[in-house]
Design brief:
The complex is a heterotrimer.
Chain A (H helix, E strand, L loop, with lengths): L4 E12 L2 E12 L3 E5 L6 H9 L6 E6 L2 E2 L10 E4 L11 H11 L4 H14 L15 H13 L5 E5 L7 H18 L2 E6 L2 H7 L2 E6 L2 E6 L1 H6 L4 H6 L4 E11 L2 E6 L4 E6 L10 E6 L5 E4 L8 E3 L2 E12 L6 E5 L6 E5 L14 E7 L4 E4 L1 H9 L1
Parallel strand pairs in A: 3-8, 3-9, 6-7, 7-8, 13-21
Antiparallel strand pairs in A: 1-2, 1-4, 4-5, 9-10, 11-12, 11-14, 12-13, 14-21, 15-20, 16-17, 17-18, 17-20, 18-19
Helix pairs in contact in A: 2-3, 2-4
Chain B lengths: L1 H19 L5 E6 L6 H11 L2 E6 L2 H10 L7 E2 L7 H7 L2 E2 L13 H10 L1 E2 L2 E2 L1 E14 L21 E2 L4 H10 L11 H18 L10 H9 L5 E5 H10 L3 E4 L6 E10 L5 H11 L2 H11 L2 E2 L10 H10 L2 H5 L2 E2 L7 H14 L4
Parallel strand pairs in B: 1-2, 1-3, 8-9, 11-13
Antiparallel strand pairs in B: 4-11, 5-6, 7-9, 7-10, 7-11, 7-12
Helix pairs in contact in B: 7-14, 8-9
Chain C lengths: L1 H6 L2 H41 L1 E5 L2 E4 L2 H8 L1 H35 L2 H12 L6 H12 L4 H8 L13 H25 L3 H9 L4 H30 L2 H7 L6 H11 L3 H25 L4 H4 L2
Antiparallel strand pairs in C: 1-2
Classes of the chains: A alpha+beta, B alpha/beta, C mainly alpha.
C-alpha cells in the first residue's frame, strides 16, 4: 500500500504559539496524481506546503514520502521540489544556469547537465531559451522555466505554491491547461495549493478543501461540487444561494426548514448524518439548479408548491456573461437576494430588471447543513 | 583628498559665514584657550556693549585661518611674537598697530619694547604682548627625579613613560639640552640644518622611550594624571594645574633653560572692528582683569601690577619652578626666519616615520 | 528631453522646448553652483597651488617639484603605501564583520527587533567621531577599563597598554566605518527575495553554495559601494589614526594636514591632496575591475 503512495501526512499539526495553523491534517496522495489544496488565504495551506518542502518542522505528526519519514530532513535533502509563488528564478543566472542549478549541486558533470537541460527545455517548449536572461522571458515562459528547474531533479513530488497567481487572466486560463498536460506527460505527483477554485477544479485529480487549519473535505472535483459534505465546502466551491433556518419537521430524508427571515424550504441533508428536529441549519442551492418562469405575482415568499420549492421575486440585476449569464432576484417579502442562472438557450434574453420571476427547484437540490456555530457547541458538549 | 577638501570647504564656508555677520558691535577674537574667560567677556560687555566672540586656536591654526581668508574673519588675533613678522612677510595677513590707541603704561615696559621690536616689519609695529610663559618639563618628582633636562627623557629609568609633542619647541629644547644653540643658527640655514640633523638622530634613538606623542594639552594632562606618563615636555601652566591635584607633579625648568614665549595681540588685515580691538586690549591689560586671565589660563600677563592680584598659590608654584637662576636662564624665542619650518618639518616627519624598535 | 519632443508636435514645439530647457537649467542651478563653487573652483585653486614652488617671500614659479618630492622622498611614499594597505585591510575586515551583521538585520530579524538592531548600529554615529575615539581611548588605555578588568580577573599582574598599536588602530577604523558598510549591505540584502534563498535551498544548495552563488552575486553592488565608501573614508580619516595609532602611526591625511596647518606648506599639501585623490581613485578603479562591477552599479 505505502509504496503506491508518493506522499502521506499523518495527523500533522503545526502551532505558532497559541495559534494552530495546521490542525491534525492527514492525507494520502497516490503516485502520479495531481492533488490540489484549496482554501481561502490564512487557512494554513501555505504552512502545510512549507512543511512538506521542509522549511517548517511540524509540531506533531509525520510526513512520509515514498515510504520514508521526512522528520528532521532539511529541504535540500528531501525528494520534493517547489515552484514558488513568484517563481524565484535566480536573476544572476541565465535560463540554462537556473535549470542546471540543482544538478550542479548534485555534482553531475557539466556535459551531462547541458544535455539534460536541453532535454527539459525541449519538453517545456523553450528549446532556444537556454542562453537568455530571466528578465527577457514572458510571464508564461518564466513559469515553464521555474517548473523545468524543479522537474529536472526528478522529484517524487512537485509542490506548487499558487504559481499562476501573478499571471493575467487569459494566460492563467492557458497555463491551467498546459500545467495539467505537463503533469500528465511527466507523470510526477503534483501538489498544488491555490485559493482559486477554478484552478483546483480544472487541473486536479483530487482536491482537499482546507479551512482554519483543517481539511473540510477531500475528493474529486465533481464530488466537491455536487456532493459537498460541509457548509464551508458548499459555500466555498462554486456559487450558491444561502439561507439559514431551523428544522421544523423531518420526513424520511427530507426536512422542512423554517427560514429565519420567514418562509419554508424543503431540503435534504448535505451530509450522510440524519437531521434532527429543531437543528439550526444552513441551506445551499446552486443558481443553475433553479428553474425560472415569468410570473404576475411577486409577493409569494418561499413555500412548497407541487412538491417543489417555489419563490417569486423581482429581477434586480442582470449579469450578462454569455453562456454564464445570471440574474439577481429579490424576494419582496423578505428582501433575500437569490442568484439564478439564465438558460443557455437564450429563452430569457429579453428579460429586463423589474420583471417578476417565479423560481422553483426540487427538494434534493436544496442541501442543508447543521450550522457551524451549532456544530461547534455540539462538539464541545 | 578629504582633508584638503574639508579645509578648503570649511574655510570657504567660514569666510562666507563671517562676512555676513559683521553686526554693529561685535569683536571676533582668535585666541588660545583661557585667554578670554567668560567673566571677563561679561564685564567687557557691561562696560562697552561689545560682544566678544571667541574662537580657540593655536599658532599654526591662527596663521592658517588668516592665510586662507587673506586676513579676514576675525578682528583680533593672538599668535606668539616669534610668528608675526615672517607670516606678515609671506602672507600679508596682519595690519599695523596704531600704538597711540594703546595705553602703554599698563604694560611691563621691557616686555612691551621687546615685543614691539620682534614684531616690527618694514618699520611698522604689528604686535603688543599679552600672556607669557615657558615650556619645560612636567615631572612626577616621586618617580622621575632623575630627569633634569630634555635629554634625560631618553633615560632607561623612565622608559615607556615619557611623552612630548612632535612640534618645533621639542626640536629647539632638545638642541639646547644637547649643548647646541639653535637660536644662534637661525640666520644660517646650513648650520641650522646640521643642528636639526643631530636632534633628529637623538629623537629617533629616544623613540622607544616614548609612550605617545601628545597632541592636545588636555590629553597630556590625562596621561600624567593617570600615572601613565611620569615625565613630559610641556607648558609650565600644565604642570601647575597638575600640581594642584598631586603635589608630586610639577613643572621643572630644565637645566639648559626653559623656552620662553609671549603671546601677543595683532590685528588681522581685514579686521572690521579695530576700535573694539583696542578697547579690548586696554581693558584686559588692567591689572585686576589681567589677574582674572592669569587665574583662568594659569600664565602671567604683561600687565604691570597684576602680580598683586594673582593667587598666592600660583605665585608660590611659579617661584618653586623658577628660582632666580632659572628665571635668568629662560630662552626667549626670537622671530622665526623663513625656510626653517621646512627643515623642521622634514625632521619631524622622519622622526614620526622611524621605527621605534 | 527626447520624450518631450515626441510628445509635442508642430508649432507648439518651438515654444515649449526653450521653456523646458530654462526650467531644467533652473532646477540644476543649485547643483551646478554647488559643484562649481565648492568642488571645482577649490580644486582648480589647489591644482594651481600644487604646481608652484616658493622662491622667496611672495615669489613663486611653476614647478613640478612638489609632485617630484612625493616620489623621491621615501618617507612620503611609505606613508602613502602604509595608509593604502591599512585602508584596504580595514575595508576587508569591515566587510567580513559587517556582512553577517547586515545579513542578520536584513534577513533574520523581523519587525521591531530588526529596527532596534539597526538603530543600535546607528546610535554610535550620533556622537562625533572625536567622542567615539575618546571612548576607545578610555577603554583601552593603560589605566583604562579593559586593562583594569583583566587585572581584576587575574589574567595579568600589571597594567597593559592596548593603545598606540596598529591593531588598535585597525579596531578603531573598522568601528568607525561599520555603519557605512552595514547600510548599503542591509539595503541591498533587503531587496533579495527570501524565496530565492529558499528556492536554492530547496534545489539542493547548502549554506556555502547559496552564499556564493545567490547572496553574494546579488549583494555585489552593495558590497562594492560599501567598500568604496569605507575605503575612501578610512583613507581620508584623520582623527582615528592620530589618536589611536600612537607614535609610529603615519597616516597620509595627517601628512597633508601637517603640510597645510603646521608647516604652512600649502604647495606640497595641495600636491599630496591631488596625489591622494588620484592614487585612491586608481585603487578603487582596480577594485571595481577585479570584482567586475561598474561605478554605475554601485550607486543604483
Amino acid at each position: 500500500m505505502s509504496n503506491q503512495l508518493d506522499l502521506e501526512c499523518r495527523q500533522l499539526v503545526k502551532s505558532f504559539g497559541k495559534f494552530t495553523a495546521v490542525d491534525n491534517v492527514s492525507l494520502e496522495i497516490p503516485k502520479g496524481s495531481f492533488f490540489s489544496i484549496l482554501g481561502p488565504s490564512g487557512c494554513g495551506k501555505t504552512t502545510l506546503l512549507r512543511m512538506l518542502a521542509g522549511f517548517i518542522e511540524p509540531t506533531a505528526g509525520d510526513i512520509v514520502i515514498k515510504g520514508n519519514s521526512m522528520l528532521g530532513v532539511p529541504p535540500n535533502k528531501r525528494p520534493v521540489n517547489m515552484v514558488f509563488q513568484h517563481l524565484a528564478l535566480f536573476p544572476m543566472m541565465n535560463v540554462a544556469e537556473n535549470i542546471g542549478y540543482g544538478l550542479r549541486r548534485r555534482k553531475i558533470p557539466q556535459p551531462e547537465i547541458d544535455k539534460r537541460v536541453a532535454d527539459v527545455l525541449e519538453r517545456v517548449s523553450l528549446p532556444d531559451a537556454g542562453s537568455k536572461n530571466v528578465d527577457q522571458l514572458s510571464g508564461g515562459q518564466r513559469q515553464r522555466v521555474a517548473i523545468a528547474r524543479s522537474l529536472i531533479l526528478e522529484p517524487a513530488v512537485l509542490l506548487l505554491d499558487e504559481p499562476l497567481g501573478a499571471l493575467d487572466l487569459k494566460l492563467r486560463e492557458h497555463m491551467k491547461v498546459e500545467l495539467k498536460q505537463l503533469q500528465h506527460e511527466v507523470g510526477t505527483t503534483f501538489v498544488y495549493i491555490t485559493h482559486d477554485q477554478s484552478e483546483a477544479l480544472v487541473m486536479s485529480d483530487n482536491v482537499a478543501v482546507m479551512n482554519e487549519g483543517r481539511f473540510e473535505q477531500v475528493g474529486s472535483p465533481q464530488d466537491l461540487y455536487y456532493n459537498p459534505q460541509t457548509a464551508f465546502v458548499a459555500g466555498f466551491v462554486g456559487d450558491s444561494n444561502r439561507w439559514s433556518g431551523k428544522i421544523e419537521s423531518v420526513d424520511g430524508d427530507q426536512a422542512m426548514v423554517a427560514l429565519d427571515e420567514g418562509g419554508v424550504i424543503a431540503a435534504v441533508s448535505g451530509t450522510n448524518s440524519s437531521m434532527g428536529l429543531g437543528d439550526q441549519v444552513e441551506l445551499f442551492v446552486r443558481p443553475e439548479a433553479i428553474t425560472i418562469e415569468r410570473s404576475t405575482s411577486s409577493q409569494d415568499g418561499a413555500h412548497i408548491e407541487d412538491g417543489k420549492n417555489t419563490l417569486t421575486g423581482v429581477v434586480e440585476n442582470l449579469l450578462f456573461d454569455g453562456a454564464n449569464s445570471r440574474a439577481q432576484v429579490r424576494d419582496q417579502k423578505t428582501g433575500h437576494q437569490v442568484t439564478v442562472s439564465l438558460p443557455q438557450t437564450g429563452a430569457f434574453s429579453d428579460l429586463v430588471s423589474g420583471e417578476n420571476l417565479r423560481l422553483s427547484w426540487s427538494v434534493d437540490k436544496a442541501r442543508s447543513y447543521v450550522s457551524s456555530a451549532a456544530a461547534k457547541q455540539e462538539k464541545a458538549a | 583628498m578629504t582633508t584638503t577638501k574639508a579645509i578648503l570647504g570649511l574655510t570657504a564656508i567660514a569666510g562666507v559665514a563671517f562676512a555676513g555677520q559683521a553686526q554693529a558691535e561685535e569683536l571676533r577674537l582668535l585666541t588660545w584657550g583661557g585667554y578670554a574667560p567668560e567673566s571677563v567677556i561679561e564685564q567687557f560687555k557691561a562696560e562697552t556693549g561689545i560682544d566678544v566672540k571667541v574662537t580657540k586656536s593655536n599658532n599654526e591654526d591662527m596663521i592658517s585661518k588668516l592665510r586662507a581668508t587673506g586676513g579676514g574673519g576675525f578682528d583680533l588675533a593672538q599668535p606668539s611674537q616669534d610668528r608675526i613678522s615672517a607670516a606678515q612677510a609671506e602672507h600679508r595677513i596682519y595690519k599695523a598697530m596704531d600704538l597711540s590707541q594703546i595705553d602703554g603704561n599698563q604694560f611691563i615696559g621691557s616686555m612691551l619694547e621687546a615685543t614691539k621690536g620682534n614684531t616690527t616689519y618694514k618699520g611698522d609695529v604689528y604686535g603688543v604682548p599679552h600672556v607669557w610663559g615657558t615650556s619645560g618639563l612636567v615631572l612626577n618628582t616621586a618617580t622621575a627625579s632623575s630627569v633634569k633636562d630634555y635629554t634625560d627623557l631618553c633615560n632607561d629609568a623612565v622608559a615607556g613613560k615619557v611623552s612630548y609633542r612632535l612640534k618645533r619647541p621639542t626640536l629647539i629644547g632638545f638642541a639646547f639640552s644637547m649643548g647646541l644653540d639653535p637660536f644662534a643658527a637661525y640666520d644660517d640655514k646650513a648650520k641650522y640644518q646640521e643642528i636639526m640633523g643631530k636632534v633628529e638622530e637623538k629623537l629617533i634613538s629616544c623613540k622607544p622611550n616614548v609612550k605617545t606623542y601628545w597632541e592636545g594639552g588636555d590629553s597630556l594632562l590625562n596621561l600624567v594624571r593617570s600615572g601613565e606618563v611620569v615625565a613630559a615636555m610641556a607648558w609650565d601652566t600644565g604642570g601647575w594645574k597638575l600640581n594642584n591635584d598631586n603635589a608630586d607633579v610639577t613643572f621643572v625648568a630644565p637645566k639648559s633653560g626653559a623656552l620662553g614665549w609671549i603671546d601677543t595681540f595683532v590685528l588681522p588685515k581685514k579686521t572690521k572692528n579695530e576700535a573694539g580691538a583696542y578697547k579690548w586690549i586696554n581693558f584686559v591689560m588692567r591689572p585686576e582683569i589681567a589677574a582674572q586671565i592669569t587665574a583662568a589660563a594659569g600664565n602671567f600677563t604683561a600687565s604691570k601690577g597684576a602680580d598683586q592680584f594673582a593667587e598666592d598659590k600660583l605665585k608660590a608654584q611659579f617661584q618653586a619652578s623658577f628660582p632666580q637662576a632659572d628665571l635668568d636662564n629662560i630662552k626667549w624665542y626670537p622671530t622665526v626666519p623663513p625656510g626653517l619650518e621646512t627643515i623642521e618639518g622634514k625632521v619631524l616627519d622622519r622622526v614620526k616615520a622611524a621605527s621605534s624598535n | 528631453m527626447s520624450s518631450a519632443e515626441i510628445a509635442v508636435s508642430g508649432t507648439e514645439q518651438r515654444s515649449v522646448i526653450p521653456t523646458l530647457k530654462l526650467g531644467t537649467f533652473l532646477l540644476m542651478l543649485p547643483l551646478l553652483l554647488w559643484l562649481l563653487l565648492l568642488i571645482i573652483l577649490p580644486h582648480v585653486d589647489l591644482l594651481i597651488v600644487s604646481l608652484r614652488e616658493v622662491l622667496g617671500y611672495r615669489e613663486y614659479a611653476f614647478s613640478l617639484q612638489n609632485y617630484a618630492e612625493f616620489f623621491t622622498e621615501p618617507l612620503y611614499w611609505n606613508t602613502f603605501v602604509r595608509t593604502a594597505v591599512m585602508s584596504i585591510l580595514a575595508t576587508i575586515i569591515t566587510l567580513i564583520v559587517g556582512f553577517p551583521v547586515s545579513y542578520y538585520i536584513a534577513k533574520v530579524m523581523k519587525g521591531r527587533k530588526r529596527n532596534l538592531l539597526f538603530i543600535m548600529c546607528l546610535i554610535p554615529f550620533w556622537v562625533s567621531e572625536l567622542v567615539r575615539t575618546f571612548g576607545w581611548m578610555i577603554l583601552l588605555r593603560e589605566s583604562g577599563v579593559l586593562s583594569s578588568f583583566i587585572q581584576w580577573i587575574g589574567l595579568v599582574d600589571g597594567p597593559v597598554e592596548f593603545l598606540y598599536t596598529d591593531a588598535t588602530l585597525m579596531v578603531g577604523l573598522v568601528y568607525t566605518s561599520m555603519l557605512f558598510m552595514v547600510v548599503p549591505l542591509v539595503s541591498v540584502l533587503d531587496t533579495l527575495d527570501d524565496s530565492l534563498i529558499e528556492a536554492a535551498y530547496d534545489l539542493g544548495g547548502n549554506t556555502v553554495s547559496i552564499l556564493r552563488e545567490i547572496v553574494i552575486p546579488h549583494a555585489m553592488p552593495g558590497i562594492a559601494s560599501g567598500c568604496i565608501v569605507v575605503f575612501m573614508l578610512t583613507l581620508g580619516n584623520y582623527l582615528t589614526p592620530t589618536l589611536l595609532g600612537g607614535k609610529d602611526s603615519l597616516w597620509f591625511t595627517e601628512q597633508i594636514y601637517n603640510q597645510f596647518i603646521t608647516r604652512f606648506n600649502w604647495e606640497s599639501g595641495s600636491a599630496f591632496g591631488f596625489l591622494l585623490l588620484f592614487l585612491s581613485s586608481a585603487i578603487v578603479f582596480v577594485g571595481l575591475k577585479l570584482s567586475r562591477q561598474t561605478l554605475a552599479d554601485t550607486v543604483k
